């Protein structure tokens, strides 16, 4: 997308699409819906088709740091710019000393009220015309009178309402997580090796579960190091298995032993007893019995086959 700006240094009509959680195509915040809004807005205003910049980024993090009470100073800032393409687009408009910015809603720029005002003032200073699809918003930027107190008041009210709606949605999401945690259910996050998510719940992956038991077998029975376990598995694993099994991977598998024994830790750090998630047997002898006969009868490495497939 930066290349798009570099390859069109004189282009003055740009659309900006931003999403943090796109959702389905019909969602107003999805990229597809925003692109459709931008096209409709340009057609209604008689403006040429814009070039569109798109980025997946949150608008809840401020782009500008101010030295306010209780806030981090600019000198101590370590975070990167949360919406780099938007900042680059403003720099492009400043170079041209003008242009047209087309958005579906003003909250695509920012959901922080005071930051919206900064960006709108920048548009006025850089002679950027704002076109907005949302019917309730275009008049707030018309005629270049963005500093009109009445328009500033309405913009602030709308921004505060957006912040409130976002807060309510986040609160509902947290309540949902808490309810799932109370029910000992999966509360999200990337599944640990050995599990897949099926209809919103963690379930053991049969092939990965056998690989985990084999890792613990090599560790407990043969006292191999993490590096040696990884090297052995990489030499003998199924060609269909694309897992790297480097030292870090083996270490993470060994460190996840509580989960593999059915002790699930939710997002609130509460541990639940989940027998349905158990992958490792209750004692090492059961683990040895699973693999030792294959070793004694000359069945090769004993590495599991991936032919068994995965759960639906």
Kindly report the name of the CATH homologous superfamily of the largest domain. Resolvase, N-terminal catalytic domain
Task: Give the helix proportion (percent range).
Answer: 40-55%
Give the overall form. Answer: elongated
Which segments are poorly predicted (pLDDT under 50) over 5 or more consecutive residues?
Answer: 66-78, 296-300, 307-312
Helix-strand blueprint:
Blueprint: H1 2-7, E1 13-19, H2 31-45, E2 51-56, H3 84-96, E3 99-103, H4 113-125, E4 128-132, H5 149-182, E5 195-198, E6 201-204, H6 206-222, H7 226-236, H8 247-255, H9 257-260, E7 263-265, E8 271-273, H10 284-296
Helix pairs in contact: 4-5, 6-10, 7-8
Quick synopsis:
The protein has 312 residues and is an alpha/beta fold. The protein has helices at residues 2-7, 31-45, 84-96, 113-125, 149-182, 206-222, 226-236, 247-255, 257-260, 284-296; strands at residues 13-19, 51-56, 99-103, 128-132, 195-198, 201-204, 263-265, 271-273. A four-stranded parallel beta sheet has the order 2-1-3-4, with helices on both faces. A two-stranded antiparallel ribbon has the order 5-6. Strands 7-8 form a two-stranded antiparallel sheet.
């Amino acid at each position: 997308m930066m290349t798009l700006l570099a390859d069109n240094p004189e282009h003055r009509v740009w659309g900006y699409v931003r999403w943090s959680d796109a959702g389905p195509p019909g969602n107003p915040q999805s990229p597809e819906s925003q692109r459709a809004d931008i096209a409709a807005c340009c057609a209604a205003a008689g403006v040429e088709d814009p070039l569109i910049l798109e980025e997946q980024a949150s608008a809840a993090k401020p782009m500008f740091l101010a030295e306010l009470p209780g806030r981090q100073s600019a000198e101590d800032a370590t975070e990167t710019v949360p919406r780099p393409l938007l900042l680059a687009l403003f720099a492009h408009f400043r170079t041209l000393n003008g242009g047209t910015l087309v958005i579906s809603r003003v909250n695509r720029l920012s959901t922080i009220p005071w930051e919206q005002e900064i960006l709108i003032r920048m548009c006025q200073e850089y002679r950027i015309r704002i076109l907005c699809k949302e019917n309730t918003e275009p008049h707030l930027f018309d005629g270049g009178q963005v500093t009109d107190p009445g328009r500033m008041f309405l913009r602030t009210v709308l921004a505060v309402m957006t912040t409130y709606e976002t807060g309510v949605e986040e609160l509902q999401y947290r309540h949902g997580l808490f309810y799932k945690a109370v029910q000992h259910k999966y509360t999200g996050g990337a599944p640990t090796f050995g599990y897949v998510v099926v209809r919103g719940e963690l379930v053991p992956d049969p092939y990965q579960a056998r690989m985990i038991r084999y890792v613990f077998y090599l560790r407990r029975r043969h006292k191999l190091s993490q590096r040696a376990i990884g090297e052995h598995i990489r030499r003998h694993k199924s060609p269909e298995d694309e897992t790297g099994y480097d030292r870090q991977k083996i270490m993470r598998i060994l460190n996840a032993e509580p989960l593999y024994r059915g002790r699930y830790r939710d997002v609130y750090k509460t541990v639940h007893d989940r027998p349905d998630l158990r992958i490792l047997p209750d004692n090492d002898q059961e683990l040895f019995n699973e693999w030792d006969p294959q070793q004694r009868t000359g069945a090769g490495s004993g590495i599991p086959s991936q032919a068994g497939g995965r759960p639906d």
